[in-house]
Amino acid sequence: MPLTDSQFMRYSRHLLMDDIAESGQQRLLDSHVLIVGMGGLGCPVSLYLAAAGIGELTLCDSDTVDRTNLQRQVLYAEEDCGKPKVECAQNRLHALNAETKIHIYPEQLSGEILANSYDLVIDCTDNLAARQQLNAHCVAHKIPFVSAAALGWEGQLVAFDFAHNDHLCLNCIIDKDAPEPIMNCGNAGVVGPVLGAMGSLQATTAIRVLLGYFQQHGQIQRYDGKKGQWLGLTAEAKQHCAICGIP
Ligand SMILES: [Zn+2]
User: Assign residue 137 a region: left if phi > 0, alpha if psi is -120 to 50, beta otherwise?
Assistant: First the structure.
């Protein structure tokens, strides 16, 4: 399907770039991305991906908007307090780009949600169990996976292209039997824009993956907002990983 006149106008800043152009924009329009967690990471991720013209976004989060969220979760307004996050997000994202189909699940991650077909899964959760569930699903179904986390002044992102790589997954880095971290944003705090930086990086990585430019399977990027420093490194595969290892 060729782009419409309205799409030519809307996505003109992508179309000006030779390495995106009309064919790249069409790929974005044909993509379906799952975003799990609509907090401090999910807000910027979904805003940028809806603005970029991703065809379908599925949002999953069981929480309602709380006044303490407004310091960093930039999709929500004061009037949203008490309402389900995914409903508020759907309204806000629809106002931004009515062409992007937004599917919502006001519930915790489940097999039913994962049973849909996705081109990419983005982990914006704040708990290890959900991260591991997403990682295992993406390994098994060869779906690219972008995971991030932030606490205090620091953020971390790791991305995997399971469509083209069998080995090295999140479980190689964080064992699935590891306990949930004691520190979280609710008890240790977080600087809002650090989540914005990591969420923007997740959205950029997502666009790279969808356009076929992602070559750095297992790449980790760490950001220290207090020092203003980025650090990039590559994870190593665990020899007998229970999720991605060959039995
Ligand atoms: Zn692994």
Answer: alpha
Identity (one letter) of the amino acid at 182? I
Amino acid at 148: A
Tell how far the Cα of 237 is from the centroid of ligand 1, in angstroms: 6
Side chain identity at 155, as an amino acid letter?
Answer: G
Beta carbons within 8 Å of 202's beta carbon, 6+ residues apart: 41, 44, 45, 122, 124, 146, 148, 157
185 among known catalytic residues: yes
Q: How far is the CA of 165 from the centre of ligand 1 (A)?
A: 11
Span from the CA of 160 to the centroid of ligand 1 (angstroms)? 11
What are the structural domains of the chain? Answer: 31-234 (3.40.50.720)
- Out of 9-13, 119-123, 127-131, 140-144, least confident range: 127-131
Which backbone phi and psi does 35 adopt, to 5 degrees? Answer: -115, 115
Strand partners, 102: 57
> Residues 146-194: pLDDT tens digits?
999 999 999 999 999 999 998 899 999 987 777 777 777 778 899 999 9
The whole-number average pLDDT for the span 237-243 is 90
Catalytic residue among 43, 169, 185, 244: 185
Using an 8 Å Cβ cutoff, are 31 and 56 in contact? yes
How many angstroms is it from 170 CA to the middle of ligand 1? 6
